[in-house]
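Exercise: predict the fold of this chain.
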Amino acid sequence: MVERSNTKNRESCRDYDPDREVEAEKLDACLEAMKLSPSACNAQPYFYYIVKGDQAKNVRDLLQLGKMNSFAKDVNTFAVVTEENYNLSAKIGSSVKDQDYKSIDIGISVAYFTAQATSLGLSTCIMGWFDEEKLQKYLGTKSRIRLVIAIGYAKDDTIREKKRKSSDAIYKIVSEDK
């Protein structure tokens, strides 16, 4: 039987327990999963800044723009994901095939990171709404910031029912098998 608990249990948490810190060994396991994720030509065109503890306030403030990401007030650990350079073979392949491998590779790495987090009992939320310029300045980088991942423990472990498109709307199996 195929295990599907991580895919069924992973969700975007928006209600974190501010009193529970993410353990270093769990964070290390998430980073190791990200490091092992596949990427075009093994280029790994990304970098993860882990911001935690008292420093997390700096990221929280740059995520809560207007009413967006108000839940971030209770998050005490963030992964800020930047886009970095390709290696030569990935750069050539991207140009020749007109494919944005960087975005694909970042997405895969984030999926591995968040799946590992879920398997360890952590909750995550992937965010793309933030003040990029101010985050760059805070982190001391000129690299594009693509995503911020909130990491922590949910206040409530109840898993919401997933609302997804029907299978027919998102895939088709093409095979000689009937």
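Check your answer against the key: The two ends are 22 Å apart (CA to CA).
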